[in-house]
Amino acid sequence: MASVTASSVKFSSVSCLIKQNQVSNLKKASLSFTGNGSQSRRLPVLRFRITCAAKPETVKKVVDIVRKQLALPEDRDVCGESKFSVLGADSLDTVEIVMGLEEEFGICVEEESAQSISTVQEAADLIEELLEKK
User: Fold this and answer.
1) How far is residue 39 from each of residues 15, 30, 33, 45, measured CA to CA in Å?
2) Annotated active-site residue in 64, 90, 93, 125
3) pLDDT tens per residue across span 41-60
4) 90 is a catalytic site residue
5) Which of 32, 54, 80, 97 could form a disulfide with 121 if both were Cys (CB 3.0 to 4.6 A apart)?
């Protein structure tokens, strides 16, 4: 997962300033654009998400653990965007998935972080973040 407190991005002749409105997760942002004519354009609050994609091998391991835990058939499509709830996971399954991830990757996931995981990609991103801190 990624968080941005303030950043400037340039697109040829346009500059974009991103300011975070929420501390824990960037879900709302205020965007201000300035072009060559020095006119500033302010857009309404937009919803978007910035993520740092985990390594493909991390996502694959998470997919394998989710498949095993939920006893999903091989022909069931499971990818980074797959939501645990859509795959049939209840709260106990999710706890067991997190425990499997902790064991596989040698990490410890805090309860608050574990409760925020709802997709394979979110789990993989959290794993990458925790491994980076090790």
Assistant:
1) 11, 17, 8, 19
2) 90
3) 665 665 555 556 799 999 99
4) yes
5) 80
